[in-house]
Amino acid sequence: MDRPDLRYAAFARDRLAGMPPPADPEAFALAYHLLHLSYLVVADLESQIHRPRGWTLPGFRLMFKLWMLGPTQPARLAEISAMSRSAVTNAINTLERDGLVERRPVPDDRRAVAAALTDKGETAVREAFAEETRREQQWFATLDAEERTALTGLLTRILAARPEGTD
User: Fold this and answer.
1) Which of 88, 90, 106, 131 is deepest in the core (most CB within 10 A)?
2) Closest Cα to residue 91, out of 56, 122, 64, 126?
3) Helix, strand, coil shares, percent, the chain, to 5
4) What are the tens digits of pLDDT across the range 112-153?
């Protein structure tokens, strides 16, 4: 634990342990480490994989969802991406401008459109996904398969039970 960020977290947790409620050193430590890890992983993936391609991580995430789901309406993409509709629309506009995504009419609803990957977009997302997977494997290599499964299960449980109003 010689990293400055880990030393600081331990220091802050110890300080909180001596404070009266509502101080909760365990909740602090969990949230601190989870947020710190999230920031580091996001920054790493963006700088190593997505920015060199001219993308953001949210842009890649949208393309990945389109790769998994096929043509999807922007409202649905916003719902499953924890992004606002306007953020999804802006990302689609950028990806469309770059020839990675296109808008298509929805057959059953003449007013609706769906976003879909172009052939160029599908090739690009496949390549980026392979590179991102290798990087994610490096991040989590310190955990064995059972530990990764357990951590994923715990995080999923927290996400499923998140507080009201955090949608």
Assistant:
1) 88
2) 56
3) 70, 10, 20
4) 999 999 999 999 999 999 999 999 999 999 999 999 999 999
Which one, of 80, 60, 50, 46, lies nearest residue 122 by Cα? 60
6 to 28, 32, 53, 155: CA distances (angstroms): 13, 10, 32, 21
Percent pLDDT > 70 in the chain is 99
Quote the pTM value.
0.87
The maximal CA–CA distance of the chain, rounded, in angstroms, is 63
Distance between CA atoms of residues 6 and 137, nearest Å: 22
Place of tokens 């690009």: 124
